[in-house]
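Quick start: load a record and inspect it. Here is Alcohol dehydrogenase-like N-terminal domain-containing protein:
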Amino acid sequence: MNNILTITSAEMVSPMKFNWIKREHQIENSDLIIKVLLWGICSSDYKTFKEGDGRYFGHEMVGKVLQGNEYFKVGSLVVPFHSNVNNSNKEEFNYELGFKDYLYIPPSKYDSIFTIPNTNVPDKYVFLDSLACVIHALKITDLYKTSNLNILILGEGFIANLFADILSSEKNRITFSSRKKSIKHSGNFDICIDTTGSNHFINFHLDNIRNNGLLLCFCKPDTDNMDLNKIRLKEIKLQYSRFCKREDVITAIEQILNNRIKFDKYITTYNGEEYLRKAFEDFANKSIIRGVIRIGED
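Running the structure step on this input writes:
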């Protein structure tokens, strides 16, 4: 393969505006070259699009290997991860992705790539990263495959529904509370899972958690504004979660392969990279939950 690879990418230039940029890159024979087939659009992507700056602008995708090696065969489908999955406590990105048509990944970053089963419909693997992070949160709180619990989920978006899909399959009783429709105080929930990152919303629901219950914060809240005294008085266990580990990704792949998670009801598909802006507009209008853009075949 030619040692020069031309990559086209969408790059933010100001809030709500990006340009398509072509750049030539010098690649090595040891680099893994991936033709990107699918981009995912999530709330983090939209936040970066809206503000014009941020690290999350194109970080969930599926691609096909064009230049492989002993670990990744040519023609296999892969999902690149942006986050560190090597049990590190550092909040770091393993590899910068983006809305690009090709990726080249050096050997030092091979551990950020996961092979998925070959399928004619790989769309359901686009949000593998999100699912793995949810599974990680459930595992560290011993909630993965537990049953018969009363669980309150704060939020009603994609992540909240992933939690619900996994937990309800184990016969747990799930209740959602959102800004549109919040529940009254009851004090009957064993577990409260926050997917909003809003301390005001968390504080409002602390009385819904029984004494010695669990509050799982999936997002990163501001603890300066959290009612830690009430958490202390009720002896609520407070647990944070971040990213995921390699074993969580493997579990997530198995969940998707065995059709335990139904992504179809959450995904709106667009055909062609020219629909990237349209997908962001639809996200802003809340007419989609998650977008998947098919950008071409090999």
